[in-house]
Amino acid sequence: MALKGNLRDFSTTQLLNLINLARKTGTLTIQHDGDSAQLSFREGKLIYAFMGQDTENHLAQILHDAGKLSEEQARIIQLRAKGTSDKQLGHMLIQRGHITQSDIIQSVRQSVLDTVYRLFTWGEGLFRFDANTLPSPGHITIPIDLESVIMEGSRRLKEWEILQEELPDLDISLRFTDHPDARLRNINLTVEEWRVVSFVNPRNSIHQIARANNLSDFEIRRIVYGMLQAGLVEIVRPAKPQPIPPVPGKSPSAKQETRKEIEQQSPAVKRSVVVRLIDRIRGL
Amino acid sequence: MQAVKMVITGPFSAGKTQFIGSISEIDVVSTERRISSNAEQIKESTTVAMDFGRITVGDDLVLYLFGTPGQRRFDFMWDILSQGMLGFVVMVDSTKPETFREAKRVLETFESYAATPYVVAANKQDMEDAWEPEDLRIILRLRSEVKILPCVANDKESVKNVLLELLYSILEELDKAEAA
Q1: CA-to-CA distance for A284 and A275, rounded, in angstroms?
Q2: What is the count of structural domains for chain B?
Q3: pTM here?
Q4: What is the dihedral of CA A181, A185, A186, A189, to 10 degrees?
Q5: Interface predicted TM-score (ipTM) over 0.90
Q6: What is the residue range of B6's domain?
Q7: Low-confidence ranges of chain B (pLDDT < 50)
Q8: Do A280 and B63 touch (CB under 8 A)?
Q9: pLDDT given for residue A241 in this prediction
């Protein structure tokens, strides 16, 4: 009989502890707020995790998220590799010298961990554990010890609680600070932070920026909080930006749609704007 | 508040940071040297120094200048930075012919991202061994309508001129679009 319940009553930490201690084999499915996550385990070790609609073809997106493929490369590969499993695609990419085996292992591992850590922030959601159900052989599976996952997840949960307290509302916007202080001199940004920086604009809500960059609420809060602390950006509290209808999962199409939506919101550059820029620069 | 963005790109050490620093009203944050230090190399694929400047035009309009990281290993950042740009400047160190091929590659990559106007700034024109801008035009295979401008990145007037020429090009494009 399947293990079933709600995270409200039995948390992600408790579930993973149980699976680890009982050395269970099977797949855990959790549904929360339109999102769906699948985690598979073999003898108590986490071997696979995915958020959204599960197919055998995620590798291109995973490699893109890990910065190993550009958006364009990932898009083309996804198109051409329809019907090809992740394992087959991985072999093909290695054979053609596009990527190394180590790149694939590291990227898949990171993707699995990102998915699981996200679950720690889900306060509720229906779950079901199907014993002995495992991903099809075409998936790339990597065994990961659950002890360290549980420890890191618990640490993130605490961090999440603090971040949520500091930044409760993600419908606010950001702008670059008017008076950056000396601390700004030594800022180095990660790829994700750069992506966020490129969308900083009072017209884009934090939520929209997160969706456009495929970042979870936790990830965007952490990045924005860091930027606020560094004095790089400040919060703008105007009338609320247009709400975006909920988009399930982390699918690339949702990301592209939101990105397009943000780009459409970007100010249309009018002649008068360019003329004002010219006047300003002349006067410098 | 309306924010518009221009991207300053070019090979490593072409003078991008200096260019932005000459005109930005805030401190430009970047030292490309830091990126290649041993400490940075350990996590080379994830951390890139910040490089951006700002010019406030009024209460309702601000111009951001984003410098791209010069090294090839950071070219994944280019796509990110190019989104929504008004136009871009390709900086070339006129004294370093060994970087011209890379400048061409950068230019072609940015051209492929968006059909936005751009100009090429032939930097270090105050140096004796600087190549002539028109020679660079031939080497970079620039179309005749693309402006190649003499530039000295640490001279504010020179930087102003480059940005103004880019804005004039943008204006021309807008006029053409309106007429069409």
Answers
A1: 15
A2: 1
A3: 0.57
A4: 90
A5: no
A6: 2-179
A7: 30-47
A8: yes
A9: 45
